[in-house]
Design brief:
Elements (H helix, E strand, L loop, with lengths): L15 E5 L15 H5 L1 H9 L3 E5 L19 H8 L3 E3 L6 H9 L5 E3 L7 H4 L3 H8 L4 E4 L21 E3 L1 H14 L6 E5 L8 H10 L2 E4 L1 H10 L14 H13 L3 E3 L3 E5 L9 E4 L8 E5 L1 H12 L3 E5 L12 H15 L4 E5 L1 H10 L7 E3 L3 H8 L4 H5 L4
Parallel strand pairs: 1-2, 1-5, 2-4, 3-4, 5-6, 7-8, 7-13, 8-9, 13-14, 14-15
Antiparallel strand pairs: 10-11, 10-12
Helix pairs in contact: 8-10, 8-14, 11-12, 12-13
Amino acid sequence: MLDVSNLKKITEKNKTVLIRLDLNVPLNSIDDYISDRIIRIKKPILNLLNGNNKVIILSHLGRPKGKIKDELSLQQVVPQLERVLEKKINFLPDCIGNEIKDKINSLENGTIILLENCRFYKEEEENDHDFAKQLSELADVYINDAFACSHRAHASIEAISHFIPSYCGDLLEEEIINLQEVIHEPLGPALTIIGGSKISTKITVLKNLSKKMDTIVIAGGMANNFLKYHGYNIQKSLHEENVDHLIGEILDFSSKNNCRLVLPIDAVTADKISNKADTKESDIDNIEEQNMILDIGKNTVKLIKNEISKSKTVFWNGPLGVFETSPFDRGTVEIAKFISNLTANNKIRSFAGGGDTISALDLAGVKDNFSYVSTGGGALLELIEGKKLPGLVALGIL
């Protein structure tokens, strides 16, 4: 259970603050693109600067596995940061050491410093306490504002809290308060839409959601496994092998918790994933030979809309089809816009999370219209599973 009462927020001023952010952002067309993750950090950073604090940003980028890789240098993120914050960013080519400490000490309060990728050190992912201690020596206080990384027992997330006064950041607080509403106290009737491809990675998520939710809509590649389990011929559709026992568990668990599972009743199919493919819309008991299920059909769209209309809380994780390729994005976009409209009219509270889900909402142009969109992917799912996230435990929140 998330203990919101234990949230410790920084009140000090005129300090050197080390803030752990998640700047693991796409680097494609970086000069023309600003990641939502960077847009979100503007207010927390400016709040710290308003307290005349010196702000040191600590983050990772990609998976360098303890090796220095120029293509994963955080220096590439500086243009995005400067455009959003409208401040000069002082980039330092390392994240520990006397030279870095001396440079930080030479800078005035009210400045922003970006350290190099902490995952260039293998000790980061090993949660090494000596490495964490060296990080802690750079500042007076530490703030965790990286919810998406808080399921990792890494040095900059967990071990560092043993060496320096540690606080919950504004973004992390926002995540916790909003996810509390979804995970523990959803206003009923409550509905979840779960997409994605692998049931094996989400069985515990589905079980825990079935305790809290009245209805779970299963779509995307994951639904193919359920359809196959129920005897439908899904032809060449994406599915996992040897998961019938998992599906049986989920069906039994949902039944015991009086949670309804809703599956697609028709689908858009094709023999290949291409915007030039010949598509066919079919009932799920009549999928054409050699075709794949690539999106939900119009009757399933109506079915899901009807279920959403009866709900007060909607949580969405995972797209409903192969949304990256038109025309297989139509189901996802239509449902996203429907939820957006109901949210705007105060009919429902809507929450979403996961990288693909956020991309899908961006595609539909409705991300800002949802009640809350979580930046967490793995962290979000692990929290729903009921796991204790090391970053939250370190702050006394779990």
